[in-house]
Amino acid sequence: MSLPEFKLLRPRSVEEAIGFLVKHGNIRVLAGGTDLIPSMRQKLFEPEYVLDIRHISELREIHPQAGHGVEIGPLTTLNAIEHSEFLRRHYPVLTEAAATVASPVLRNMGTIGGNICLDTRCLWYNQSLTWRKACGFCIKKDGDLCHVAPGGTKCWAVFSGDTPPALLCLNAEIELASPSGVRRMALRDFYTGAGDSYRKLQPNELLTRIFLSDSSADLRGIYRKLRIRGSIDYPLAGVAVALKRSDGQVSDARVAITAVNPAPTLITGVAGALEGRAVDESAAEAIGEMAAKTAKPLTTSALTPEYRREMIRVLTKRAVLAAAAN
Amino acid sequence: MAEFTIIGKPIAMVDAAGKTTGAGKYTDDLSLPGMLIGKILHSPCPHARIKRIDTRRAKALDGVVAVVTGADAPKTYGILPVGHDETALAVDKVRYVGDNVACVTAVDEATAENALELIDVEYEVLPAYFDPEESMKAETDLIHEGKPHNIEKDYHHVFGDPEKAFREADYVAEGRFIANEVTHAAMEPHSTLASFELDPHTGNLGRLTVWSSTQVPYYLQHKLSLVLEMPMSQIRVIKPLVGGGFGGKSEVIPLEIIAAVAARAARAPVKVTYTREEVFWAHRGRPRTIVDLKTAVKNDGRITAVKARVVQDGGAYCSYGVVTILYSGALLGALYDIPNIQYDGYRVLTNKPACGAMRGHGTVNVRFAFESQLDEISAKLGIDPAEIRRRNLLKPPCITINGLRVQSYGLPESIEQVVERSGWKQRKGKLSKGRGLGLGCSHYVSGAANSIIRSDMPHSTVNIKIDRDGGVVVYTGASEIGQGSDTMTAQIAAEVLGCSLARVKVVAADTDLTPIDIGSYSSRVTFMAGNATLRAAEQVREQIASAAARKMNCAIEDLVFGDDKVARQGLAGGSGTGEAPVPTQPGATASGRVEGQILRGSLQQKRTEEGPKDRMSFEEAVVAAIDFHGALTGTGSYAPPAEARGGKHKGAGVGPSPAYSYSAQVAEVSVDEDTGEVTVHKVWAAHDCGRALNPVAVEGQIIGSVWMGLGQALQEEMVWKDGMLMNPGLLEYRSPSAVESPKIEPIIIESIDPEGPFGAKECSEGSLAATIPAIANAIYDAVGIRLHESPFTPERVLAALRAKKNAKAINMTQGVDPLAPTRFREHGGSLCFRGKGPERHRLDPARRETAGEAGGDD
Amino acid sequence: MKKELIELKVNGRMRELAVAPSKVLLEVLREDLQLTGSKRGCDDSSCGACTVLVDGTPMLSCTLLAASCQEQEITTVEGISEHGSLAAIQKAYGDRGGAQCGYCTPGFIITVKHLLSVNPNPSDEEIREALSGNLCRCTGYSQMYEAIKAAIEAEQRGLAAL
User: Fold this and answer.
1) Are B629 and B724 within one domain?
2) Could you read off the pLDDT of A24-81 as tens digits, one per residue?
3) CATH (domain of B121)
4) pLDDT confidence tier of residue B805, bands split at 50, 70 and 90
5) What's the complex ipTM?
6) Same domain (yes/no): B466, B424
7) With an 8 Å Cβ cutoff, are A4 and C22 in contact?
8) What backbone torsions phi and psi does residue B259 show, to the nearest 5 degrees?
9) Pairs across A and B, CB distance < 8 A
10) Chain centroid to CA B113: how far?
11) For B276, which of C42, C81, C140 is closest by C-beta distance?
12) Which of A40, A91, B450, B544 could form a disulfide with B653, with the two C-beta atoms 3.0–4.6 Å apart?
């Protein structure tokens, strides 16, 4: 399967990249390529231009900011995130999530920015052109119906990144650059909750930085992932937990889930439920219930929706207990 | 035990260096000057009549050389003589999503792919059948003419008096088992390169040469001849390295014919290589199988009768289907002593890719059911699972009730070994919560005693040539597909001739050079091609011996061949022999051979200066023989003996084998009771392979089989939705990665078969079938649930756990959205094929005017 | 499609090539440079058969645009054999049954070569983890572990001899 034809642009700086984004309408940004290239092979994207930002070295670094957390360049590979001593010490939920993405070779290529911007996935969407044509296409691409929720007009393609739930737990912010300047937004506001137009990224914008604040540092973090195969697989359900304890009691707690909704989702009410308490079985169980209620898995992926929702409950409970214990 | 120099030693594959350096060539690595790339247009409909195909727009595209359709080669073919139901490209109907409609040849892949989009096909959609039990009720719109109720074939066998045995049984177990569909997923996607020569006499297209990823060059040559209507003598099939077969390349796959048809039309060499998705559509894997199984036992655990009704979802074409459904019944016998058997097998057509032969052909899914049910029985009767199997052993040599001859039988020792090594007696039932041990057994043929092509020809023939350089060239049609066929051949030739392995060159699987061999499937190569090699080598050795005996003034019987020498008996162990290291790589001894190198023709002179002696070097002996005979050649062949060819009932031809391998396995698993996830910690796998000719290769085959069984047991499944394969890629079809692959301890059991070459039997397939029930039984031991459907995905395990505990009912197959389907496999209904989608495709003129897409990050 | 002139450094040699921008590295290696050791096994970046080293790091050559790899050092399996003889890992894979059909083997050789360069004495767990991005359908991976250990021993013996 060959890639569709396109013209390749290879900017060396953010300015140059933005310039290309402004100039060319039908353009896709290529970072690690682990999501875009297979999708282009399936003709899910047939852009006129591909903006290859792999060599913009300024976007590739982890910059600890004294007293102000850390800035992460979006081109930092998942492998570099996984092996960053600084991140492991201060933001362990992120390194743990990064270490579970796909497989070692894919983490050498895939970037944190790419994982944040990852296209939503569905068994009816991530298929070849020939395959999709055979079922009359789907609402996310080329078609006008949804095979997952027949009769519905909403796309349920599922967000399947591993690091975004961890970043949500860390209250991460992102910076988007465009010709009109930069804007900074909370990562949780970046996702729309729709499977097709799943992120708020304007055609001329580029993700340029990820911020983790000092106030989110040093939370105990755990990431748990449901997958059938021990490697390579996208998550079928994922849970990130970050919590802070003082004197045996929880002083702050956040839980986010992935791979069961069109967006990675922060569970509301977790801090309220846990703050000032010691984490025990029943408290963890209650958080699991809250997470399972938030999860709305459909038949976008392998394994049944009900099982995946049940696993959100089980994995959340386990992750909360583990975070409280370690 | 006999002493061998090369047999029984762990030896690196003779082609290993090519594989580890990347220098070895697989079909897709080949190219020819002027070569075009072929791409196939596949059906978007599961069942439809083709009303019209218009290829004009595609032909007009720059860079396109030819477009072929069914009309270009309408002759039917099929791997079985009774199943000629395929054509190179669809002639009137398409029968599954992915069926082959047309082929474009163009200067490069992208051009060919673009041209596919320009072929206009008008389909008249027909009702389609996806479920075998539904398909069996069909009255109209049959998938093939002449197959009422879409039944490809059904067999009804009764051996002994099963009804009586069921009446008199102390206990009868009964249950339905379902094994879902799996596929080979060999790492190499199929590839074929076809090239015609111009005939110097006629000036037209002449001989055809085809390089292809095939397990059976001979069958390909045969089917090409049929479809292209050319004599076989005008077709040469060459098998380069093959990147795994497992049965998926054991028959003629559509692209192999299509490439030749396209090359004929394009008048240029054409290479077609499947995408991974196309590999899934070509399929020929293990069918989804529904087994209704009933077993009668006495209180002492003796099995008195088995009754099995087996329905296989065969897909849209016959393929090996008739053989598969027969194996499922026949191999109920020959593992245990079962006096009464009733078998009802149905091979059913459905509108999905054809199923065919896959490792453990026909026996795996039924074995899962049988060994699981035997475990149930042992629990019911309170007899240890190992003990109940011991009480039902065969007493060979014997012929089973269904006509299978068993001679060597290593099952008892296999059971002993796994029981001992796994600590079964001490640990079974005493492991920590959620952890358990399970036992399963299996067996398999060492080649089919009856070829699928009815004829008296030998199943294997091997030629050997030795010229004055002392190089031994073995010509065999057996196909190396990674299992070690070439290495086995070289070992046997070297052992018989007493020469070093480095001297032997194997020329394999090239129909111009190598004699007919019916290929690498049904685990027949070691037994059959091995025996043929043995006989060919013996024939050559005789010639060398008679010349050497003359030179040494002794009787032929006094000569011993070994260590690259021919010596008089009693002297073989003398100085200069015995300790020479066995070279393992053809090139490895290059420098060592220089001093022994004898230039062609110069030896005669050298020899005349010497008188009679006690030993000669291999080269001296060869040259002595050549002086009398000319270049040495020998031929050996193998045909299974009449006694091993089975009974006379309808379908008796499938199942008989000259020898059966035996396997026993213990699996240790743990089950997470909250998630249903199963972890396999270790599998002890004992396999009776007769004699292990190359232990490192035998262990590799045992481990590989067990591991593939593990994949089917836990995570591999082809998921269907209205004839759409939902997971046609290696990302979603999950063969195990290194992380979750358990330790597998292979244990070689050598029963030394009386007819196998050096006593060898098969080792590449038999182990697979035992793994699935061993894991199922271990799960039962761990958490007390009996799984009746494979793979044992966490949702199935958790659903069973919940059901057992009577805990809060959780319907694992129900979606959250009320609109969502109740079962994944069935959901979506008729929405498929009804959307407006195709009109909105990029090649649709209306859509081309719409604006481009939004940009964004990767 | 319009081709562009690019320079690629492959196995230590600089090569000038005219390729279309949509060509992935794997295609260029196999078709333009005849380095057919790297294999295509899937189309969805899952199998690892095409793994090569890019600036010393294993990457999937089917997922990299060739033109994007300019100014980077590419090592394919053909670049692993040392001075025309088998590298220890290649010899060990042959001896221990690490390669059966051999189709996935080049990808594994690259992966293992990298593993041993960053971690000369990996634990069993580390080996499994490192190999988990490459799929093999023949071996069940077991004999690869033995091969890797044998190669480590051979390397150490070799070093001791120096």
Assistant:
1) no
2) 989 999 999 999 999 999 999 999 999 999 999 999 999 999 889 999 999 999 999 9
3) 3.90.1170.50
4) confident
5) 0.98
6) no
7) yes
8) -60, -40
9) 207
10) 31
11) C42
12) B450
Spell out which residues of chain B touch residue A237, defining contact as CB-CB under 8 Å. none
pLDDT (mean) for A151-176:
95
Q: Output the CATH code of domain C88-161.
A: 1.10.150.120
Predicted model pTM: 0.94
| Phi, psi for residue A179 in degrees, rounded to 5 | -60, -30
| B569 plus B599 within the same structural domain | yes
B interface test, pick of A299, A309, A311, A313 with most B CB neighbours within 10 Å:
A299
As given in the structure block, the two tokens for residue A97 are: 């999530």
pLDDT tens-digit readout, C22-69: 999 999 999 999 999 999 999 999 999 999 999 999 999 999 999 999
Minimum distance, in Å, between the CA of residue C150 and any CA atom of chain A: 23
Q: Which residues of chain B does A36 touch, with a Cβ-Cβ cutoff of 8 Å?
A: 858
Question: In the complex, which subunits touch C with 3 or more CB pairs below 8 angstroms?
Answer: A, B
Task: Write the pLDDT tens digit of every residue in B262-295.
Answer: 999 999 999 999 999 999 999 999 999 999 999 9
> Are B417 and B686 a contacting pair, CB within 8 Å?
yes
Q: What is the pLDDT of residue B809?
A: 52
Which residues in chain C touch residue A104, judged by CB atoms under 8 angstroms apart? 58, 111, 129-130, 132-133
Burial class (CB in 10 A: 0-12, 13-18, 19+), B229: exposed
> What's the whole-number average pLDDT of chain B?
90
- Indicate the pLDDT class of residue B380, thresholds 50, 70 and 90: very high
B852 pLDDT higher than 90: no
Q: Is C22 an interface residue toward A (CB < 8 Å)?
A: yes
Residue of B nearest to A22 (CA): B855
Contact C132 B737 (CB under 8 A): yes
What does the pLDDT look like over B287-322, one tens digit per residue?
999 999 999 999 999 999 999 999 999 999 999 999
B670, B754: one domain: yes
Distance CA B220, CA B256 (A): 8
Q: Tell me the fold of A60-117+158-325.
A: Enolase-like; domain 1 (3.30.390)
Residues B213 and B309 in one domain: no
Class of the CATH-defined domain C4-79: alpha beta
Which single residue is written with the structure tokens 């707690």? A253
Instruction: Provide the sign of the torsion angle of the four alpha carbons B581, B586, B590, B596, taken in this order.
Output: positive
Query: Do B431 and B465 sit in the same domain of this protein?
Result: no
C88-161 has the same fold as C4-79: no
Instruction: Flag if B26 and C39 touch (Cβ within 8 Å).
Output: yes
Can you give the residue ranges of every domain in chain C? 4-79, 88-161
* C57 at interface of A, judged by CB pairs closer than 8 A: yes
Q: What angle do CA B585, B588, B594 make, to 5 degrees?
A: 130
The structural domain count of chain B equals 3
Under an 8 A CB cutoff, do A133 and B857 touch? no
| A266-273 own/partner pairs: CB under 8 Å, 24+ apart | A266/A168, A266/A169, A266/A188, A267/A291, A267/A294, A267/A316, A268/A294
Of C36, C39, C94, the CB nearest to B16: C94
Of B20, B26, B28, the CB nearest to C86: B20
- Does residue B8 lie within any of the structural domains? no
Task: Identify the CATH number of the domain in which residue B398 sits.
Answer: 3.30.365.10
CB pairs under 8 A between B and C: 186
> Does any CB of chain B come closer than 8 Å to the CB of residue C23?
no
For chain A, residues classed under CATH 3.30.390.50 are 60-117+158-325
- Which residue of C10, C42, C96 to mutate against B (max B Cβ within 10 Å)? C42
> CA angle at residue A110 from A107 to A114, to 5 degrees?
140
Q: Touching A: which chains, 3+ CB pairs < 8 A?
A: B, C
B134 part of a folded domain = no
Q: Do A105 and C64 touch (CB under 8 A)?
A: no
Sequence-ordered list of residues with C-beta below 8 angstroms from that of C53, at least 6 positions apart, any chain: C59, C73, C74, C75, C76, C110, C113, C114
What is the distance between the alpha carbons of residues B242 and C49, in angstroms, rounded to a whole number?
14
Torsion of CA A278, A279, A285, A291, to 10 degrees: 110
Q: Which domain holds residue B39?
A: 31-126+188-243+249-282
From the candidates C45, C54, C141, which should be mutated to test the interface with A, based on the most A CB atoms within 10 A? C45
